[in-house]
Amino acid sequence: MNWWNRLLRGRRMDEQLDKELRFHLDQQIADLIGRGVAPDEARRQAQLAFGGPTQVAEDCREARGTRWLLDMVQDLRFGLRSLLNKPGFAIASVATLALGIGANITVFSIVYGVVFRPLPYPHPHEIVQLIESSPSGSDEKDVTYKELQFLKQQGSPLEFLAGYTVVGSNLSVSNRTERVKVVPVSVDYFHVLGIKPLLGRDFLPEEDQGNGAHVLILSYERWQRQAGADPGIIGRTITLDAEPYTVIGVMPPHLEATIDPILPGDTDVWTPLALVGRTVGEGENIAVLGRLRPGISFAQARAKMTEITPEFRKVFPLGLVPSTTLTIQSYQSMLSNDVRTILLVLFGAVGFVLLIACANVANLLFGRAITRAREFAVRAALGASRTRLIRQQLTESVLLSILAALFALLLARIGMQSLGALSSSDLPRVSDIRLDGWAFAFTLAVAVVTGILFGLVPAFRATSGGVYEKLSEATARVSGGRQHGRFRAALAVSEVALCLILLTGAALMIETFRHVLNTDSGFNPSHVLSMQVWLAGPRYDSTSSASRYYDRVLERIQTVPGVQSTSVIAAGLPLQRGGNSGVAFNGKNIQQSFETRMILPGYFQTMVIPVLLGRSFSAADNEHSPAVVVISQTGARLLFPSKTPIGSRLNVFGSEREIVGVVGDVKSYLDQPSQPMVYIPLAQAPYEALKLFSSFFPTTIVMRTSAEPMALSHSIEQQVQEVDPSVGIGHIRTMDQVRSAAVAMRQFNMTLLSVFAALALVLAAIGIYGVIAYGVNQRRHEFGVRLALGAKPGNILRLVLRQGIFLVGLGILFGATGSLGLTRLLQSYLFGVAPSDPIALAGTTLVLAAVATLACSIPARRASKLDPMAALRDE
Amino acid sequence: MPPKSDLPQGTLDLLILKVVALDPIHGYAIAQRLQQVSRDVVQVPQGSLYPALHRLENRGLLAADWKATETGREAKFYRLTRKGRSQLEAETKSWQRLTESVALVLRMSEGGAE
Fold it and tell me: Is residue B4 domain-resident?
C-alpha cells in the first residue's frame, strides 16, 4: 500500500490494527489458560507482557508515515477552533500582523521591481553599461559619437557594443502632432538587449553610417495607438520632425529600456544613431551598453575594459578626467543606482515595523499561553509529548500569520495604488512594480517565518516545567512567574528601541524635506504657468524663423485675459535639468561649464528674478544688434570677484558677447548650490546650439497670470495651436507643480518613512500598554493586599508607572544608540540636517516617551483604582 | 535460565524477516517463534513487534493477508515479498560478516592478554 492509500484508508487500517492486536492478546490469554493459569490472572499477565495497547497502536500508526499530515490537519482544526473561541484575540493579532505584513509586501514589490527583478531581456546579467570609476565613486560614462566609434573597434570583451541617446521629436499623423520619445541607437543595440522585432526587421549596418538613413522602428504601444495595430505599417512613411521616415519594424510590447529624467515614459520610436551623430553626438550624450561575450566572466570583461583606458585617454585627452578609469557595471544595477540605497533603507524600516508587530502578537500569545497553561498541562499528562504541544502552538501561530497575510495582500493592493499616485518619474522601472508570484512567495515566506518568530518563545515557555507544577500552578492561578515577566519586558524594550530608530529616521527626512521646501529657488513660482512647445521641421530651420514663431505666440498669449506677462526659455526650466556649455573669458576656457539658457525678453520679469546690476534683455537685442549676455550672481562672483562684470566680454557659443546685466541665482536642483548661469537672447543664439539643446531639453513658454494659472491653460493652448498646429505641445504645468515634481522623490521617501514610523509608534504604544496591563492584572492580588494594608492609590500608580518608565527608558537608550548607527545610512539623502542631529533625536525621544508614558498610565490608573476587597476575593 | 539480552539496534527487523521467510505467519506466532528459537534469550518486547511489522509492510518487504487460523479466527498473516527476500539475504550476509569480524577481534585480544 503506498503512502496515499495509507493516508486515505486510515480508518480501515485502524480497524484492522485493532483486530490484529486483539487477536494477539486473546491468543496469549488462551495459551496461558491452557497452561493452567486462572482466567483473570491470565488476562493480567498477557496485558503486562503486551504493554499499553493504545501506545502500541499509536506506534503502529506512526509507522505509516502519514502521521505528521494528520497531526497538522488536527492542529489546524484545533487552532481554528481555539481562535474562533477568542475572536478578540484573533482579530487583534490578525489586524496587527496584517498591517505589518501588508506594509512589507508593498515595499518588497517596489524594491523587487526597481532593483532586483531581472530585466525583461534574455540573459539580462550579460548586459553591461560603460561607466567611469574614480576613487570617489563611479558613475555612468556618456561618450561622444567619435568616442563610441573608437570603443566599437576596441570593445573585445563585449560581443556587442551599442550607444544610445534619448531625444524628443514631433511625430505627425494626419493633422495632429505629438511629442514622442525617440531613442537613436547604434546598429547593435537590439543585439545587446537580445530582442528581435515583432514585425519587420531591425537596423542594417549601412543604415547607421554616414548621416544615417531615414528609417525607424515603432514601439508596440505606439504601433497600437498610432497605426491601429495594422501589420501593413511596415514599409510605409511616417513624418518625424517634418521629415519622412520609412517604418522598418515594430518591437514587441513592454520594451522599456531607458530611464530618462527629461523624457520619462516608454520609448516610442527607435532611429539609427548616425542621424544624430553630428549634432547630439558632438557632446558626451551617448550612453554605452554592451553584451558580454559568452564564456567571458564579468570580472574578465571588466579588467579588459580597464586596460583600454590609457589608449582611450591618448586618443581623447579631454574625454576622461585624469583620475578615472573606464569600466563596466551591470545594466540592471545602473538603472536603480540612484534609488537603491534609499529603497533598501525603506525596506529595512518596514521590516522594523513587522518586528514590532510580531512582538505585539508574541505578547498577546504569551498572555494566552499562560491562561491555557492548564490545558497544556492536562494534555501533557495524557501523554502528549512536548514537541507535539509546541508544534500545535506553532501551527496556531502560523495559521494566525497566514490569515493575516491574506488581509495583508489586500492592504498591499491598496497601498500600491496610493503609492502609484505618490511615486514620481524619478523612480526607475515603475512599470516593473507589481504584485506577482514573487510578492506572493515573499508573503508566504514572511507569514511562515513571522508565525514561527512570534510563536516559538511563547510555545516553549508554555510547555516548559513539569506536568505536576503546571497543573497545580494553573489551578492556583499564579502568574507566569518571573521568567515570563522578563520576556515580556524584553519585548517592550525592543519595541521602544525599534520605534525610536524609525521615528528618528522619519524626523530627519521630514526635517530635510522642510529644508528643501524652504530653499529659495530664486524665482517666484506662484501664479506662473509653463507650457512646453516643440518646434521641428524645415519651417523652423533657423534661429530667426524660430524666434519669429515665439514672438507671434507671445503676442497672441498677451491678449488672453488674465495673463500679465509672458516669455520663453529654451534649454531647460528652473528646477529641472538643463543645458551646459563651455564659456571662455579673455580668450581662455573657464574650467567650470556654465548652465546656458536662451530666453525671450520679459523672462526675468515673468519669473520675478531680480536684476541686480545693469539691465535685462529687450526686443532691441536681436540678430542685428550687438551680441549681449546676462550672467547670474554666482557666475559673476566666479569670474569677477572684485570688479563689476558689466561691459566685460564673454565668449558663449563661439562668439564674443557683452555682459549687460547680472541677475539673481536660480536653482536647477533645490538641494544643490546654484551653478553659474549665462542667459543669451534666443534671437542671438546660433541655430546649431538652439537645435541641439532643443532635442534634449524642452523650450517652455512661461506666463504670469493674475488668476489661477491652470484655469487659463485651455485658452492659451488654443492660441498656440492656432499659430501653427504642427508644433507639438508638451507638459502644461504651473511652476508650483514643477517645484513639487522636483521634490517628489523626497516626498515619496519622507512619506513612506513617516507612515512606517507612525505605524511603529502606534504598535509600540499598544505593545507597552499590553505588557503593563498584563503585569497589573497578574499583581491584582498583591495590589489588593497593599491597598488593604493602607497604601494610597497614588503609591500604586507610581509603582506601576515606575516599572513602565524603566522599560521605556531602557528602550530609548538602546534605540538612541541604534539610531546613531543606522541614520548614517540616510546621510546622502539628508539636506540641511546631520544624521546625528541632536534636535531630531531629542524631539523624537520626547514624543516617544510621552506616548509610551501615556500608554503605561492607563493600566497604572486602573491599578490604583482597584477595589481591594474585590481584588482579594478574586483569589 | 540464561540472562536475557536486549536486541542490538536493527536486528529485530532481520529476525522478523527470517521467521516470516519460512511460511506465512501471524504476529502472535512470530513472537512465540522468536522466543522458542532463541531459547528465551531474545525477549521481543511485544510493544515493538507490531510497529516493526507495520514498518516492514509499509516498506514493501512484507505483505499481509487476512486468513483463518486453525481455531477458525481471522488473523493477519505476514509473508515475505520478493523485495523482502533479497533484503533478508543482503542483511544476513552483512550480519555474518559483522559477527565474524567481531569474533576475530575478540579472539585476537584474548591472545594479546595472555
Answer: no
